[in-house]
Amino acid sequence: MEETRSRWVKISLIVSVLLLVVKFYAYLITGSTAILTDALESIVNVVAAGFASYSIYLSSRPKDDNHPYGHGKIEFFSAGLEGALIIIAGLFIIYQSVYNLFFPQELDNLLEGILLIAGSGVVNGALGYTLRKKGEETNSITLIANGKHLLTDTFTSLLLVFGVVILFVTKIQALDSIIAIGFSAYIVYSGYGLVRKSVAGLMDEADPEALEATVKVINQHRKDTWIDVHNMRVQQYGGDRHIDLHLTLPYYLDLKQVHDEVEELENVLELDWPGVVEVFVHADPCIPEKCCHYCQIKNCSVRKFEMNTKIDWTSINMSKNQKHYHDQVK
Q1: Measured distance CA(27)–CA(39) in Å, rounded
Q2: How many domains does the chain fold into?
Q3: Phi, psi of 256, deg, nearest 5
Q4: What pTM was computed for the model?
Q5: Which residue, among 164, 199, 187, has the nearest Cα to 91 in the 3D structure?
Q6: Molecular function (GO) terms listed (predicted)?
Q7: Which of 159, 186, 202 is the endpoint of a domain?
């Protein structure tokens, strides 16, 4: 899996460098600020791909004494850097576009520039789609971020081509700066999205998708002896997933039986995830006076109250730091 990540991020770097040359050539022969927006974003692609290559390498290293939770968070730095560079490039282009409104430059060879940008956009689109798909398969936020960025770049490139075609037909030179400003605003917005996601990961913000996936697999393998699961926390760093939870078991189980139940739950969670999974389970004994009402164990010899309900396990009640008998309190 790590080899797949590394291979595709290197391909992304090579392609980004080649497209950077093509787009700057298109800018040099046309003098179009709108085309410059695409060229500058390609610089971001190259820098981001280079940093992504390093982050993929670092995140694949095993945990050590200084990094007991592994190195997966480096991928959040990669996505954040990419977003920050996108924002800087977008703001620079806005400045350049406003300047060109007052001091317009002569535009040449627009048709050739259009063809070069269109071809670059198609290549970026194919690569971006592949990177996002491989990122989802390998649970790599870096590949996903890089893929989404390239797909965004493709979308803006194709719209840019449309705008430059209008400029080519109408000969209204001011359209060059207006188009560039519009695309720059979109670029800044997309960069903000990457930075926002990066900060969320570094701050250990709750990951709804990872939590829902964990809840789903536990429900699929739910056992009657697992009376309830609560205080569950799920964090994902790159391809690593960390899960903490409390598992309520019958109080009369001996230590070996408790260990076997905990191990079974851990195996269920580990086998469901293609990457590295670290599971910490805290076992709690049931409280007959409070748990019997929803305990699903049939013919329980120590039952004190009749079972009268079954509590659905959801991401909401499994995340609470309390046993599920609280759900019975009206």
Answers
A1: 7
A2: 2
A3: -65, -40
A4: 0.59
A5: 187
A6: cadmium ion transmembrane transporter activity; ferrous iron transmembrane transporter activity; zinc efflux antiporter activity
A7: 202
